[in-house]
């Protein structure tokens, strides 16, 4: 079963009622929660064996300790709907519907963020997941490490010459084995792991690499502390981290300062006279080089690592983008969307897809009406398709009314994971839209024969986060399209533009 739900009737919503042992619900957690499930199953969160109870969470939040007085930095919780929280056991499935684990739901609880199941987690099958074969349980990794100091590193982005020199220097100082635990976060975790593997020739011979699905926590200190606990679980005795940490379970070391010398080698800062050091690459310059597709300097990284870095961050010209026009009926969204499609089709190399309201409502969103829920579904489905088009390097131009901020925001989030996103508010005043009334809809809305009409009897939430605002009562069609194109050029999405 891939859908979320219970298979033993409706629980009635009261988790205080003891649930029968036969009661098992199924649930597909958020990807970040599934990552925590994997870490629990792998023994990477000791002493935790499952999701925390309300008391444990309170204790962690107030004292950074579990109730048994063991230090623990971050609540590990699973949020579910109330009816799922009422089940005695919850079978957790991945997004493809494959069962991953079962939570024995001993003590469900709720707070302002929703309902949570609490109890030990057990695997139901052979573990699956990205790069699973590279990820033995923590205990096994620990057992195979050599005796002596172990320097843990949990990179979230590719390691280049500078970071590699820092690792080598600290490992040499400590005479330590290196334990690299790349954090499998971001849209392409497998590529990050490959970038770390590509650094192999630059790493000390005594290095172990085990990817961990540890997603980033919002608080940087707690995130770093949790990383230290995970590193300790896999056998690290020391950890390199930018953040200074108190109460870490292992010794935390700041990355040592290394500089690039005149011969383009990265060396300890103390060994290079200031006049002999050369500047490195700022994060901003690195992004510019990646966006433009230019080569990364060989003093910055190796060709093999650069190749993986470029896969993580392809040039803008090779990535897709979405333009979402929003505005009242008659504002000019379809007219501008069509004109933009024609411009892009003539001048840009990407395949262009127009997701216009009318066509979408006859196909992808057939059967949906104009209630708030249906509009929300309509806009989010458009967003899903636009994100897929974007992911595959195309240009998607969408022109729904999209009256709700939350839905536009959801589209933005989906698309941003895949490429560029531009929100264009076609802000033609209601009076002008009504004067145009090409389809006679405003007249019908005013007389009441067309209910729930945007701007008249249904809301339009004006965006305060638009990248561009165009009033077509003041701008000609050509001027309006030119402004969109100018913005796409400014952002680097569209490069060559031969004027017509
Ligand atoms: N009640 C009501 N409210 C608004 N619009 C209505 C309604 N009923 C039909 N229409 C016609 O449907 C078009 C809007 O559909 P969208 O998919 O763009 O709307 S939404 O984003 O889901 O709100 C819209 O097209 P445009 O004029 O191109 O915007 C209308 O022609
Ligand atoms: N500067 C302009 N830009 C876009 N449309 C304009 C402009 N001036 C007048 N119009 C007219 O306004 C109407 C807008 O309709 P449409 O593009 O279907 O709007 P929407 O898709 O927002 O409902 C069209 O008839 C179009 O010719």
UniProtKB/TrEMBL annotation:
Record bears the keyword Transferase: yes
Keyword match Cytoplasm: no
Reactions accelerated catalytically: adenosine 5'-phosphosulfate + ATP = 3'-phosphoadenylyl sulfate + ADP + H(+)
Domain ATP-sulfurylase PUA-like stretches: 32-110
Domain APS kinase: 319-471
Gene3D superfamilies: HUPs (3.40.50.620), P-loop containing nucleotide triphosphate hydrolases (3.40.50.300), Sulfate adenylyltransferase (3.10.400.10)
Organism from which the protein derives: Saccharopolyspora mangrovi
Role according to the record: Catalyzes the synthesis of activated sulfate.
Keyword tags: ATP-binding, Kinase, Nucleotide-binding, Phosphoprotein, Transferase
Enzyme Commission number(s) from the entry: 2.7.1.25
Region (Disordered): 1-22
Name of the molecule in the record: Adenylyl-sulfate kinase
């Amino acid at each position: 079963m891939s859908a979320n739900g219970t298979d033993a009737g409706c629980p009635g919503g009261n988790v205080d009622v003891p649930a029968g042992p036969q009661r098992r619900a199924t649930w597909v957690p958020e990807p970040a929660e599934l990552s925590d499930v994997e870490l629990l199953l792998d023994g990477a969160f000791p002493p935790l064996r499952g999701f925390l109870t309300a008391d444990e969470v309170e204790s962690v939040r107030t004292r950074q300790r579990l109730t048994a007085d063991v230090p623990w930095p971050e609540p590990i919780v699973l949020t579910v709907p109330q009816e799922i929280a009422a089940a005695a056991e919850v079978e957790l499935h991945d997004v493809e519907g494959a069962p991953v684990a079962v939570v024995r739901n001993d003590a469900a609880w709720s707070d302002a963020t929703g309902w949570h199941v609490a109890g030990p987690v057990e695997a139901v099958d052979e573990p699956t997941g990205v790069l699973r074969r590279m990820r033995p349980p923590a205990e096994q990794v620990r057992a195979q490490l050599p005796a002596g100091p172990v320097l843990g590193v949990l990179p979230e982005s590719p390691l280049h010459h500078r970071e590699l020199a820092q690792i080598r220097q600290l490992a040499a100082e400590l005479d330590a084995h290196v334990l690299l635990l790349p954090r499998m976060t971001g849209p392409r975790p497998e590529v990050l792991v490959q970038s770390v593997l590509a650094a192999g020739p630059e790493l000390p011979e005594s290095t172990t690499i085990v990817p961990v699905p540890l997603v980033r926590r919002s608080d940087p200190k707690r995130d770093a502390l949790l990383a230290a606990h995970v590193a300790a679980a896999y056998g690290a005795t020391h950890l390199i981290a930018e953040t200074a940490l108190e109460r870490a379970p292992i010794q935390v070391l700041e990355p040592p300062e290394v500089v690039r010398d005149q011969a383009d080698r990265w060396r300890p800062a103390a060994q290079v006279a200031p006049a002999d050091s050369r500047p490195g690459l700022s994060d901003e310059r690195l992004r510019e080089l990646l966006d433009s597709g230019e080569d990364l300097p060989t003093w910055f990284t190796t060709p093999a690592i650069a190749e993986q870095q470029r896969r993580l961050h392809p040039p803008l010209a090779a990535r897709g983008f979405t333009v979402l026009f929003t505005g009242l009926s008659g504002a000019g969204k379809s007219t501008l969307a069509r004109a933009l499609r024609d411009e892009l089709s003539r001048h840009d190399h990407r395949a262009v897809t127009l997701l216009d309201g009318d066509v979408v409502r006859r196909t992808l969103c057939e059967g949906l009406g104009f209630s708030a829920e249906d509009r929300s579904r309509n806009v989010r489905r458009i967003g899903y398709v636009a994100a897929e088009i974007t992911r595959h390097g195309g240009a998607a131009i969408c022109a729904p009314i999209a009256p709700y901020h939350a839905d536009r925001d959801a589209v933005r989030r989906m698309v941003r994971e895949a490429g560029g996103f531009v929100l264009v508010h076609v802000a033609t005043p209601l009076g002008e839209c009504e004067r145009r009334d090409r389809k006679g809809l405003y007249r019908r809305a005013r007389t009441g024969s067309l209910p729930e009409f945007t701007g008249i009897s249904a809301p339009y939430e004006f965006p305060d986060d638009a990248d561009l605002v165009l009033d077509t009562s003041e701008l000609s069609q050509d001027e309006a399209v030119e402004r969109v194109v100018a913005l796409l050029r400014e952002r680097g999405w569209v490069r060559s533009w031969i004027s017509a």
